[in-house]
Fold this sequence. Notes:
With 404 residues, the chain is α/β, with parallel strands linked by helices. Helix content is 35%, strand content 25%. The protein folds into two domains: 107 residues, PDZ domain (Pdz3 Domain), CATH 2.30.42; 202 residues, 2-enoyl-CoA Hydratase, Chain A, domain 1 (Alpha-Beta Complex). It is built from 13 helices and 19 strands. The strands form five sheets. It has a six-stranded mixed sheet with strand order 8-9-10-14-16-19, sandwiched between helices. Strands 1, 12, 13, 17 and 18 form a five-stranded antiparallel sheet that branches. β17 and β18 form a beta hairpin. α1 packs antiparallel against α3. The longest helix has 24 residues. The N terminus and C terminus are likely disordered.
Amino acid sequence: MSDSALPDSPGRFSGSRALFVLISVLLLAPIATGSLTRAIASSDDKKDSFYREFAVFTEVLEHIRKRYVEETVLDELFAGAFDGATDALDPMATYVPADSVARYREALGHGIQRTGLQLVRDRGFLFVVGVAPGSSGDEVGLKSGDIVSKLNGRSTRLLPLWEARVMLGGEVGTKVAIEVLRQGQTKDFELTLREFETEEPNVEMREGVAIVQIGQFEPGLVERLEELLSTPEVAKNGRLILDLRSIAGGSVDIALAAADLFVDGALGELRERTEVVETFTSSRERIWNGRLVLLTNRGSQGASEVFAVVLKQLAEAVTVGGGTFGHAGRSASRTLSGGGEFFYTDAFYVTPDGTMLNQTLAPDSAVTGSSRRLGDVDRSLDELIIERAIEVALEPEAAQKKAA
């Protein structure tokens, strides 16, 4: 588990990077509003503004073609512009050229089953959000928060997200060299793409508190959780820690079904820009009424964020560790006129209290590297988080509510 923070974005741009950003900004307006027509048709002021900016873009592009110190290839520049535009939208968005759509869809079909790695691009960096236990990525030692600097010797500085996913979603047996930056140091790994079985949730008892590692929000999870919660050892203590750290992606439907074990009532909704497209309500009677503590970190993303916030708001669960990634949305795609495909987020999940899940969920009790006290120097952050979670779970109810 890791709470490695992303470094600040680079402060210096190359000439091609500058053009990359310029075109990205200009293309973002029509993409973010759905279509060029919608971008310019809402008012005369917007229409005039769009054409003004587009005229500037055309002028700059022509000047670069004629005067830039290095000869430029328009196809490469526009490919970078499309990638920059999607990066500006959200970490999950990507544009895939027409001749690569089939390969990308095949990689998406594999999901994280080849490596266990959930990758995103955020603020220009390609990094690992989550690593599934028992996967090849976990086996070689990759961690949530690792910044991927090279894939098979190729720099990821301008590598599109779709291409990175294709490289990590190839044929079983393929070897992939990965260079990452971790806490300022470069580390090299080689993993072999292979299938793996998702680890089932398991329980560990410590100081009378049950600690459950969730695993992934995949089929079978709800049944396994229900089984664990019903065991006399867990049920009699009434104190439960659920570990959601580095659980990225997965099924939100399964996360909501799992939340049903702990809460009653309205669970939130799925909302597009201007309308609610789906609402969620508990469909069964809760089976757990004891103390709840949730472990989160930067690798808690998507389904795990939905699960965490529902339990926090409706079951008074206390979160311990680090802030979540901050992106729980529904993915969609659109085929463009040139045959390329645009993958983007078309709706976000909204919490029971009406908060959209497009921002980090801060923990109630933060535990970071700076939380170490005298004598804790040699102890891992993981140990400190677990220790703090047990303390919270064992606190009297009034003290716990005050801490939250």
